[in-house]
Amino acid sequence: MKKLVTLLLSLALVLSLAACGGEATPDASDDAPASSQNEESTENDNTENQIVFEEVVAIDNAECAVKITEIDPDNMWGYTLKAQLENLDELHFIFTSPAFLDEKPKKAQREFYIPRLNRERTLHGSEFEIKLRSEFRQRAISQECAHWIREKARFKSNKTMEGMTGFLTVDSDSPVAYAPVNGFTREDLGCDRGGRMFSMINRVDAPESKAYLELFDQLWNDQSHLKDVTDKVLESITTAYQENSPEFLYFYALYNIFGSFLEQVNEDDLPSEANGFKESQVWNKLYTFQKDAVIAIISKLEQYNGCILADSVGLGKTFTALAVIKYYENRNLRVLVLCPKKLSDNWMTYKANYVNNPIAGDRLRYDVLYHTDLSRDKGFSGEIDLSKLNWSAYDLVVIDESHNFRNGGDVDNEGKENRYTRLMNKVIRPGARTRVLMLSATPVNNRFYDLRNQLALAYEGDSSEWQGKLDISRSVDEVFRNAQKVFNEWSKLDAASRTTDRLMQMLDFDFFQILDAVTIARSRRHIEKYYDVSEIGKFPTRLPPISKRPPLTDLPGAIFYSEIYDDLLSLTLSIYTPTNYILPSKLEKYAKLNHEGKNHLTQAGREQGIRRLMSINLLKRLESSLHSFQLTLERIEQLIVQTLDTIAHYDPTATLELNDLSGVADLDADDQESDLFTVGRKVKIELADMDYVTWRKDLEEDQHTLRMLLKAVSQITPAHDSKLRMLLDTITEKIEHPINPGNKKVIIFTAFSDTAQYLYDHVSAFAGEKYGLNTALVTGSVEGRTTIPRFKADLNNVLTCFSPRSKDKAALMPEGPDIDLLIATDCISEGQNLQDCDCLINYDIHWNPVRLVQRFGRIDRIGSKNDVIQLINFWPDMDLDSYINLKGRVETRMKALVMTSTGDDNLLSPEEQGDLEYRREQLKRLQTEVVDLEEMGTGVSITDLGLNEFRMEVMEYAKHHPELENTPGGISAVTQAQPDAPAGVIFVLKNVHNEVNINDRNRLHPYYLVYLTEDGEIVYDHLSPRSTLETMRQLCHGKTEPLQALCRAFNEETRCGEEMQLYSDLLEDAVLSIVDAKEDSDLDSLFRAGGTTALLNQISGLDDFELVCFLVVKEG
Questions:
Q1: What are phi and psi of 75, to 5 degrees?
Q2: Single pTM value for the model
Q3: Distance between CA 133 and CA 137 in Å, rounded?
Q4: Cα 578 from Cα 593, distance rounded (Å)
Q5: Stretch among 85-99, 198-212, 633-647, 669-683 having the lowest mean pLDDT
Q6: Can you tell me the distance from the alpha carbon of 591 to that of 204, in angstroms, rounded to the nearest whole number?
């Protein structure tokens, strides 16, 4: 037959003919019709909706009579047939279309390894079997049925594509045939109406029926058309009662849950191996988890035009992206890499024909430009002439540190431009189709809009096409508006309630649909738990961070930190805001003073921004080193002296040229990325148009304060610089008492290049004289330096000699020297693998806590050979609250100055206050623990939200395990409990009637996962599917064989599945937890505007759910 349901194979091929819900008539006449009109019978009909059979037999060429002797309405089976079946001699059955064959029929269209032979899947799945499974009887019944089939039955399949019509025949003294029979479901046989208006089956009596029997015999013996598949059928049946491995059950659950995704996968959206990219050097340097990401990224780029790779620090996003680039370059497509300037050397190396390029053989040819180049129309960026560049010709744009574009911009308003709008309108929208791959460990700061703005680069600001592809009910913008509203509500909860699980329960299905479609985010914890780290090594153990708080100096009577801070707060820094002093009568003359044509940044706005940056920067410089602080004081004081001299020699015709007064060299790498410094390098203001008298007075006051500070700090020489002395002591301790045997390596990070040079001068001399160790300096702004004579100290050479194992020094520079001490700025805080080192010192505490985690990520990487690693932080000599409040005090001071000059009554905004609180909380944590990047936000990391990794996991598994398609439902496995996964059971259920997905909150609907303990306590409810799936993966990963000891214990407990009362009760608890959630939601809806969902659906409990599978978790 074309279809055969598990009713046959779980003791029900024949049983399905009887289970029609009424009472059979054993002594019905021979000419009783074998058809059923599924309409109400007349009032005189005493057997409504019944089918009456005298003898019904699946095709058999031997004596085979199955009589329905009675139907017991109080019995859950509704019949008593076991004895009758035992009396049968033989059952023969033909599949009229190919089924259970090793050779799959040729497919009509290109598909991706997902079996579509639904006739095999229909061995299970009827409503009747749903009830069997929900009652946990399938395992026991299948076991009996398999035994019976081994003794009595044989199955053959049509192995051609020639059609065959289905029929039944009874071989007896008076043969009877029934035709046509299109299948063996209750609907096909007319026992249930289902979705059909009627079912018509004709009964054919002798002598005409003999032709059917002769035809069957002829077919049965035709080896050219039929193949014996009894073993295959039996294998499918026994799956329901054999012991399953935990890993197989895990993937079987995923296969069901994500089946629709697998069926939608188009081979054209997946990378073709014929492309050759899997033979590349970069591909073969990837770990398995990176290869998984590459395949997924390419699929997303082809389907949705964009993808965000948000793997955590230390997981090799750069190499993953390089493999994607190689794939597209092999297709002869043009690729652009947009990155911060500090990362450009890294990207340039991987395309260069250098001996220190580990993938030089791949001959990558992508272009590299800086984020800031988007604000330029002319000049050179490296060797690229921006005035001639065809921005719109790129087929793939890779944006490193894409979170720099998270603030978005008005891409459709020509009056306002920033880097974001220029990227959209110059690169992505015009010309060729442009795919966008975004790399960022922090794509979300504290707003989901951050994510939307980055994704908009992929859909070019028009999300309508995505809406159809993603099958979401609202526009992408509306989905994110709602998600942001939910996030804001969640943020107001108390700390105990503000959990990731709570947020995930509040967000709706559409948001997760978008997230899963276009993001990939794995954490360190994820890789450790779910991948085989034996191929790549382990993450090292983090020792608790060490905090150092050196005083300013040991000189008696010297100035203190607090005194310096008070003096800094008194500065107006009016040297940076000359437009504040333009006479009111002359303001109109300069009203339109702005930069770069369309750029909305006015000169006044730029000046206010620079003053704010420079005021905060004075604090940062002081925190970094006295040397850097003194340099900045001298530079500002010199600017004031020059300006006062211009005013003193007043000439009415003189023009004041404001040539880049910003002092960019004094800023850290993050501040240098500001748009403030890409515009307005030359602005002219006539002195005659200024209130220069007032300006001179303000400048003189600042000059006096600066000179007092310079006098005080200049007395503190390096010999009395307590912070420098403590650093040298720390290095001594590390070298003389290594953290890991024989490892003397130390990285010292600072935010400022002049601090780095100051440290290099003193540390290199100290380490060379005392220990004979080599020291190197890399800053990104000056040429690298080392203590090694005649050594070319470029970035890659230095890092290769500092971290020889991770940088493959043996292959690239086998004769190269060893470097043990590295002093660096944040030019290497991202994108570098330096895990040979086991100790990292933050000589200053970066004002962005995320940067501190990124720095530590250079040595806290998978594959490290170090057992433990150490983080050491140098803090200012003051309590943390006072330290954090400094920035707030400076911000308030600057805002007060703006208010005085402009009348704008705008002190610290709630967002700025929130930023200070965020900084306070994170820095408190960093004093006592090493924090993962995904834990840094006050919000939540997208690594907590996506489910895509599970889809890609089962997609790969299904390639090599076609048995997933043929496995009947209701299977189980037993695995061992773990400390964070207590004994109990995990149910995977399917909602049959689509009635319980409250407010679209279950992202897996119609599938529901519930994890309960043996006592019925909910560990994870159905609104926490990610947590449940992660736990299942943790419990099942690598367990490819049944755990025999646990299986024996389970079988003894349940008498091989006969006594399942405990699990039946737990199943009921699981379903009730889902139903109760709906009822609670219905009640809540009574009090919401827009009506109620109450009474719209009827949920009766177990009957509304199919049991897909379950995982028993037992103590070992």
A1: -90, 135
A2: 0.63
A3: 6
A4: 13
A5: 669-683
A6: 99
